[in-house]
TrEMBL record:
Keyword Oxidoreductase annotated: yes
Species annotation: Mariprofundus aestuarium
Functional summary from the UniProt entry: E1 component of the 2-oxoglutarate dehydrogenase (OGDH) complex which catalyzes the decarboxylation of 2-oxoglutarate, the first step in the conversion of 2-oxoglutarate to succinyl-CoA and CO(2).
Record SUPFAM superfamilies: Thiamin diphosphate-binding fold (THDP-binding)
Domain of life according to the entry: Bacteria
Family in the record: Belongs to the alpha-ketoglutarate dehydrogenase family.
A family per Pfam: 2-oxogl_dehyd_N
UniProt name for this protein: oxoglutarate dehydrogenase (succinyl-transferring)
Ranges of residues in domain Transketolase-like pyrimidine-binding: 598-792
Length: 946
């Protein structure tokens, strides 16, 4: 709010919005009495005099000429309205209606929102009486009030008083941008009925003070006892604590059973202690570094990134609270929370979206600046992602790290981005805890009435720097001089309650003293032991293990597969399928009857059908995933006459939590992948798959991969079974659509944190997906998916590969004689079929091809077993499509060497090192492939990588 625009920009905005009649009045006032105007107006008119080159006073006509370019639009508006100067005009009674609408539209610009009062007050012309041909002489005249809540006619003086109380107090609402009249009128009526003022009883106000006091005193205690340690203090924004408490209480009254929260590090420790109920002993142990035990799982994370879950008791019942773990990438938790909420709603069968609710706490600079916010807002109304509305609370410190708002955004408010989904915005002064609680209660009511997002802009300040070791006065001297002089929220509210007779000074002092003594007693306790590691395998995770689970049997009988194929691919009579899709469906039935080789689309669909028929839960999302980018899936089919769609896999759903969900997502990777990660963490009993249209699209979600998918288990002890399906393969389509950046995932692999696979047959895919859901261990599955292989008949599987066996980390060849082999070629993925075709073309009989299907964890034992028959073969080649600095070669050459015999030597065959993943010319691509194959089958090893 403060310093949102430089003064010259602010005055220009006012001029642009003003009508010429109003400007004329202001200028006349300037000529009569310059001191009666705001300094900015005086400076502006003075500048105009200097620029005009005329001797003051400037003539009336020359000033109008000077202003005309800025007021043309407003003048056109006035030209369309009959003159309103005559009181006998029938339009005269309507002038108050225009004023009422102006307050609803612009009142927030005049609201008392900034605790620091750093901004000069705006003087919007639309709120001036003269703008409508009114003056002080009209104040006692009664005017019709239209739809203003209250009497049908009121004196103008009372109308203005009501409007100022409602729209220009400590709550400044923005809602006139909403096109839905029902939502707009609900906000309008709710605020005007109470004049945007809370009316809490004495007990509630004492309760609010207690929470403010706990918030401030905890921060002060940590600041003095743990000097120099970062905690990202809430000081200056303590009203967040009673606001959240009021929100939880009102939500519970409205039937909410679970609230899933996400926030960055600012104020997190305070929320953990005073809202979530995390033990102070645990928080102090984290400051002292004694929280980790030797047996703890993973590496852990800093204290202000940690999440927490608890059950809190409200007057209306128990509410389960869950605060998501969050890395330093601020807003990236936003879609993760949304996905978690959707999974919980689905599990509860909460179709009305009233039992599970999300609350997201943002920083002002991040909310305005980070693209994942806009992406996540766009998810709010989409069928496959909507969760019935989110309450967003922006803790608006009016500063970034050291950056002022006018350098951090191009909008008036940091919350303007929320207008893309027409969310109402309640700006509120953080120094008024009661107004903050009122805003929270209204937000809950709005969300549960309309199931839409709503935003609270908690305008406050940051008493210290970005962290407690920073010196903010270096870059914001004026702001921090004001902050140092400004009383705390606790002091302001204390004085207010004492003045109102709610508390005495002694009672306040006793409350503070008792809480300080409690904090000190907890810290000094001799028997305070390190907390045990949080057990994340509870609730829905009960029965899962971090490691050591047996491999499940993923094969199915031919009879069951045939039955499922018929049930999934036979549609109701009268459904008009597209001929191409109908042919695909008929072929799948024959494949499961053993009459045709099984292709990739059939193998994938049969994995889903089998899991769903066993009571399982499958969710697949991605851009164009219903049909699929490569025209192979057709999980959604469309009637060619009516256009209606159908999801045939739902015909085999079996049980209360048996679901097949397929979603065509919006054109976003970061928010959607984050959403699906949150879904997978909240619901381990679902197979959650995010499919990239092309593998390189995951680049846009790299932060989700780095900070959640790869590291979530080691940092936060939270497992995820999310599948990332990334089409990968060099086919002459240029740099962008060739590589899923396999090397980036392998670089992130450690501590058995995820699986990286590149299956080469439909049966392998079938067993992979079934294993992912049937295993008692949950690890992210990164799958390099087929593109051209989808049509490669050499890759198709026999039915027996589905009815026997399981996923094979390494696939060998059984038809060759090991003693005759002069070379073993190791490879992974699509290049196997290029090698296979070239070997057949050249009629080579002494080179064997082994496929490594699981790249991580590296299958050392399985590969060693496959290599044992070739112990006398000295040449071991690794062949890959990717350049030498990319793909799997930089990561696998060392573990492969470790299992070779002393007489064996490994050579690398790849494209030359390259800054881009692939060439842009199909001709060059073919030339490179030819060179690659020539090197793979050459007689010698000269020039190869070692």
């Amino acid at each position: 709010m403060s310093q949102s625009k430089p003064d010259d920009a602010r005055i220009q905005d006012e001029l642009f919005s003003a009508g010429s009649a109003y400007l004329e009045q202001v200028y006349e006032q300037y000529l009569r009495d310059p001191e009666s105007l705001a300094p900015q107006w005086v400076a502006y008119f003075s500048d105009l005099v200097e620029v005009s080159g005329e001797a003051p006073p400037v003539t009336h006509q020359s000033m109008l000429e000077r202003m005309r370019p800025q007021t043309a639009a407003a003048k056109r508006y006035f030209d369309d309205i009959p003159a309103l100067s005559d009181r006998g005009d029938i339009e005269y009674p309507s002038r108050a209606i225009y004023l009422i609408q102006a307050y609803r539209m612009h009142g927030h610009l005049h609201a008392q929102l900034d605790p620091l009062k750093l901004d000069p007050r705006l003087t919007s012309p639309e709120l001036e009486l003269g703008y409508y041909g009114l003056s002080e002489a009209d104040l006692d005249t009664e005017f019709p009030t239209g739809d203003l809540t209250g009497d049908r006619q009121m004196p103008l003086r009372d109308i203005i008083a009501l409007l100022k109380q409602t729209y220009c107090g400590h709550v400044g609402p923005e809602f006139m941008h909403i096109t839905d009249s029902a939502r707009r009128h609900w906000i309008q009526s709710r605020l005007e009925r109470i004049h945007s003022r809370a009316n809490y009883d004495a007990n509630t106000r004492r309760h609010i003070f207690g929470q403010i006091m706990h918030a401030e005193e905890l921060e002060r205690f940590l600041h003095t006892r743990y000097v120099g340690q970062k905690r990202f203090s809430l000081e200056g924004g303590e009203s967040l604590i009673p606001m959240l408490d009021a929100l939880i209480r009102r939500a519970s009254r409205n039937g909410v059973k679970e609230i899933i929260m996400g926030m960055a590090h600012r104020g997190r420790l305070n929320v953990l202690a005073n809202i979530m109920g995390k033990a102070l002993t645990d928080i102090f142990s984290e400051f002292e570094g004694t929280q980790f035990e030797e047996a703890a799982q993973g590496q852990g994370d800093v204290k202000y990134h940690m999440g927490f879950s608890s059950d809190v008791t409200t007057p209306s019942g128990i509410v389960h609270l869950s605060l998501g773990f969050n890395p330093s990438h601020l807003e990236i938790i936003t879609p993760v929370v949304l996905g978690s909420v959707r999974a919980r709603q689905c599990r509860r069968k909460d179709k009305a979206k009233t039992e599970v609710m999300s609350v997201l706490i943002h920083g002002d600079a991040a909310f305005a600046g980070q693209g994942v916010v806009a992406e996540s807002l766009q998810l709010s109304k989409l069928r496959g992602f909507r969760i019935g509305g989110t309450i967003h609370i922006v803790v608006n410190n009016q500063i970034g790290f050291t950056v002022n708002p006018f350098d951090a955004r191009s909008t008036t408010y940091c919350t303007d981005i929320a207008k893309i989904v027409q969310a109402p915005i309640l700006h509120v002064n953080g120094d008024d805890p009661e107004a903050c609680c009122l805003a929270a209660e209204i937000a809950v009511e709005y969300r549960n009435t309309f199931h839409e997002d709503i935003v609270i802009d908690l305008i406050c300040y940051r008493r210290h720097g970005h962290n407690e070791t920073d010196s903010p006065e270096v870059t914001q001297p004026v702001m921090y001089r004001r902050i140092n002089e400004h009383p705390t929220v606790e002091q302001i509210y204390r004085d207010r309650l004492i003045s109102d007779g709610i508390l005495s000074e002694q009672a306040c002092d006793d409350m503070i003293t008792n809480y300080r003594d409690c904090l000190d007693k907890v810290r000094r306790a001799n028997d305070r032991s390190a907390p045990s590691p949080a057990n994340s395998l509870q609730g829905r995770w009960n029965g899962f293990v971090f490691e050591g689970a047996e491999e499940p049997d993923t094969a199915l009988s031919g009879e069951l597969l045939a039955d499922l194929a018929h049930r999934v691919h036979r549609l109701p009579a009268g459904f008009s399928m597209h001929p191409k899709v109908e042919k695909i469906y008929e072929n799948r039935i024959q494949m499961m009857d053993g009459k045709l080789p099984v292709d990739w689309g059939c193998g994938e669909v049969m994995a889903y059908a089998s899991l769903v028929s066993e009571g399982g839960w499958v969710r697949l999302t991605g851009e164009d995933s219903g049909r699929s980018t490569f025209f192979h899936r057709h999980a959604v089919v469309y009637d060619q006459v009516t256009g209606k769609n159908m999801i045939p896999l739902r015909q085999v759903e079996n049980g209360p939590l048996s679901h097949f969900i397929v979603v065509d997502s919006m054109l976003s990777e970061m928010a959607v992948m984050g959403y699906e990660y949150g879904y997978s963490v909240a619901e381990p009993r679902a197979l959650v798959i995010w499919e990239a249209q092309y593998g390189d699209f995951t680049n846009m979600a790299q932060v989700v991969v780095d900070q959640f998918v790869a590291a979530g288990e080691t940092k936060w002890n939270r497992m995820s079974g999310l599948v990332l399906w990334l089409p990968h393969g060099y086919e002459g389509q240029g740099a962008e659509h060739s590589s899923a950046r396999l090397e980036r995932f392998l670089q992130l692999c450690a501590e058995d944190n995820m699986l990286v696979v590149y299956p080469t047959t439909p049966a392998q895919l079938f067993h992979l997906f079934r294993r992912q859901l049937m295993s008692k261990v949950r690890k992210p599955l990164i799958m390099m998916g087929p593109k051209s292989m989808l049509r490669q008949k050499l890759s198709f599987s026999k039915l027996e590969h589905f009815t026997h066996g399981r996923f094979l980390p390494v696939m060998g060849e059984r038809h060759l004689q090991p003693a005759l082999m002069r070379r073993v070629i190791l490879c992974s993925g699509k290049v196997y079929y290029d090698l296979l075709a070239e070997r057949q073309k050249r009629e080579i009989q002494d080179i064997v091809l082994l496929r490594i299907e699981r790249l991580y964890p590296f299958p050392a034992a399985e590969l060693k077993t496959e290599l044992e028959p070739y112990a006398s073969t000295h040449e071991i080649f690794w062949v890959q499509e990717e350049p030498a600095n990319q793909g799997a070669w930089p990561f696998l050459n060392s573990p492969i060497r470790q299992i070779l015999s002393p007489d064996q030597k490994i050579f690398g065959v790849s494209r030359p090192e390259s800054a881009a993943p692939a060439v842009g010319s199909l001709k060059r691509h073919k030339q490179e492939l030819e060179a690659l194959l020539n090197a793979a089958f050459a007689e010698g090893t000269e020039g190869l990588l070692v």
